[in-house]
Design goal:
434 residues, alpha/beta
């Protein structure tokens, strides 16, 4: 028996069109209607998924066709979406923007999974000119089902009337709009999250949900996007090993993929600890220090000397540890914040991390070790500089187009540390320590 349910991919012509704003509002609105909504995020973004979870009340899942195989992406969508009343997927960048033309794009994922697409278009300073834009997106890739449009930054009802007229002439349904109001704009962001401590994404989701309940025909959106759901795949057999795995998770360290955690649970018992508040490590055969915002919590991390000593002793004794991005910075001798103040850190890696000067480095990464390959993503503003000792590195690192990059993967005893956020949800973490 074929199952049908509402499934929508929120796409756009460009970044900054309002995909995240509309997605958060839709997730909250559907949740408030009593629906169980499973959200997904195209691409490697581990921050928007946190916002999704807050808005929907369910953990979000990344769908990425560079870091994982097409079969794995299908399996994730089926497994996590089966128990939901509706599935909402937020796209990445413009609909057809991938790491190589369409490869890795939202359009590729929509086609792979058969998800209908609703476009969110930035209507600021435009009106009927959206017609050729919509026509192009509808017809550029005929296998995609672009079923409707929603307009953001709309100035008035008469402005929306012009936009709706463009939709009628193109043959696509206008599903509504988001008004141009200050309260509907997410403030400046730091690695994707607001750095305004007074900004509350929970209240923001409520605000957007209240607005789109009045200005967007959500019932029609759900009707248009009801489609056959991929066959319900049997849950993956859990082969729980006997390892004890400790994962850092607090305000400073929390960038992690949901399926990575599930892969760890297949290896053994997973426990969480806080480098900010706990004084000693839990007993563990493997420690995972994910990325996050250590630069925003430097006094607390540096002041917890007992935890720093516990981690250092674990690493020096040959304990297995994987550290990514912010976790790698924490293992350095020190971190210098944006204020120029330097704080002592764990001191396992003989180098210093600094936020000065801030310069963005990002992109997909493929790391090739002898006999094994693992993929991931790099996204940071900090950098490292030499400290008291030279650290061995291992593997060669390439970007999505096969060009070698200078991002190192540090090896010290049984520690692996890098700016790369690895994805092992498909291959399992043992590949890193084989």
């Amino acid at each position: 028996m074929i199952m049908q349910k509402p499934q929508v991919l929120i796409g756009a012509a460009t970044s900054g069109s309002g995909k995240t704003t509309f997605t958060l509002g839709l997730l909250r609105l559907l949740r408030d209607r009593g629906m169980k909504v499973q959200s997904f995020k195209c691409g490697p973004d581990y921050i928007d998924t946190k916002h999704h979870a807050m808005a929907a009340g369910e953990e979000a899942v990344n769908l990425d066709t560079f870091m994982a195989s097409a079969g794995h992406v299908r399996q994730l969508y089926s497994r996590y979406g089966t128990g939901a009343d509706a599935c909402v997927t937020e796209g990445v960048m413009g609909l057809f923007d991938g790491y190589d033309k369409m490869k890795g794009s939202s359009a590729e994922i929509a086609g792979l999974l058969g998800i209908p697409v609703v476009l969110v278009l930035n209507a600021k300073s435009t009106a009927y000119s959206v017609a050729p834009v919509l026509y192009g997106f509808m017809h550029f890739h005929p296998e995609l089902r672009v079923v409707g449009a929603i307009f953001n930054f709309v100035a008035s009802e008469s402005h929306y009337a012009s936009l709706r007229g463009a939709c009628e002439d193109v043959g696509i349904e206008a599903l509504g709009y988001i008004p141009r109001e200050e309260r509907m704009v997410i403030p400046s962001r730091h690695l994707g999250l607001s750095i305004d401590e007074d900004f509350c994404f929970d209240e923001f989701a409520d605000t957007v949900a209240g607005v789109i309940a009045k200005t967007v025909n959500v019932d029609r959106l759900l009707e248009l996007c009801t489609a056959d759901f991929p066959g319900c795949e049997a849950p993956r057999e859990i082969r729980q090993g006997n390892r004890k795995i400790a994962v850092a998770r607090d305000e400073a360290f929390n960038f992690m993929y949901r399926e990575n955690l599930e892969a760890l649970r297949r290896e053994g018992e997973v426990v969480f600890f806080s480098p900010l508040r706990d004084t000693v490590l839990p007993e563990a055969d493997l420690i995972y220090l994910p990325g996050g915002y250590p630069e925003l919590f430097l006094p607390g991390l540096s002041g917890n000397e007992s935890m720093r000593q516990s981690l250092r002793a674990y690493c020096e004794a040959g304990g297995r540890l994987l550290a990514e991005c912010g976790g790698m910075m924490y293992l350095c001798e020190s971190i210098t914040g944006t204020d120029g103040i330097t704080y002592p850190m764990v001191g396992v890696l003989g180098q210093e991390a600094t936020m000065e000067p801030m310069k963005l480095k990002l992109g997909y990464r493929e790391v090739v070790f002898p006999g094994r390959v693992i993929r991931g993503h790099e996204f940071h503003y900090s950098r490292v500089k030499p400290g008291t000792g030279k650290i061995a590195t291992g593997g060669k690192v390439y970007n999505a187009r096969g060009g070698e990059v200078d991002t190192p993967v540090y090896r010290y005893k049984n520690v692996i540390a890098s700016y790369v956020h690895f994805y092992w949800g498909e291959c399992g973490i043992p590949v890193l320590f084989a």
